Amino acid sequence: MKRSRVNTAEFIRRQIEERGEGYWRHSDFSHLPSTAVSKTLSRLAADGVLERVSKGLYYRPRQTRFGRSRPSQSDIQKLLTKQNLHPAGLSAANLLGFTTQNAIQSEFATSANSIPRSIIGSRARLHTRRPETWKHLEPTDAAMLDFLRSRGNLSELSPAETKRRLLDYFREGSRFERLVAVADAEPPRVRAMLGAIGQELRKSPQELEKLRNSLNPVSRFDFGKLSNLRYAKEWQAK
Predict the structure, then answer these.
(1) Which of 24, 71, 127, 144 has its CA 20 to 30 A from that of 117?
(2) Tens digits of per-residue pLDDT, 200-209?
(3) Global pTM?
(4) What's the CA gap between 237 and 211, in Å, rounded?
């Protein structure tokens, strides 16, 4: 047993030293005994080989003439992807081209209960506990759902331009079908907006019926800046 623990520790250390700079998590060694992984990573942090970022997350720096390196933007972006973080609010509207404004405080959404502030920054705004379906969304699809959640009100374009750009996104590939597939987990107003968008784009009657049946027929929804969708009233817009 002792030999097995030693071999596990040596294996982990070798993997980290061979790869060099970057982030490491417990899940990177999910095929190994979890207790041994935890102890080894903690020991490597104590030895200065790793830096502990947060519980279960470590960073392997490299030595430069200016001191120990810090994570690059590409490293951070890869980590955000692994953490199921998506742009939200003004950040989402900016990604989609509805505004040229850049939020002073970055804004993210995640299906997780929390994300270490050491990853996203102390001033970032974080929306947690989004549906589990968000784990599998592409960044643009997640940003689009967030834009619908905000009723398009973060767009700095005119209502007509906002609508045109919105419909163009839903003409791309199978985006409409992908978002309808996860719509059950979204607020009713988002499902109603998807229905109005789909009807305007002449999408499958079966997909539209699925959305319509998910809505309370006596409810009315605030479509915000998207109230100019052609069939908004048929989809219970106020």
Answers:
(1) 144
(2) 999 999 999 9
(3) 0.69
(4) 14
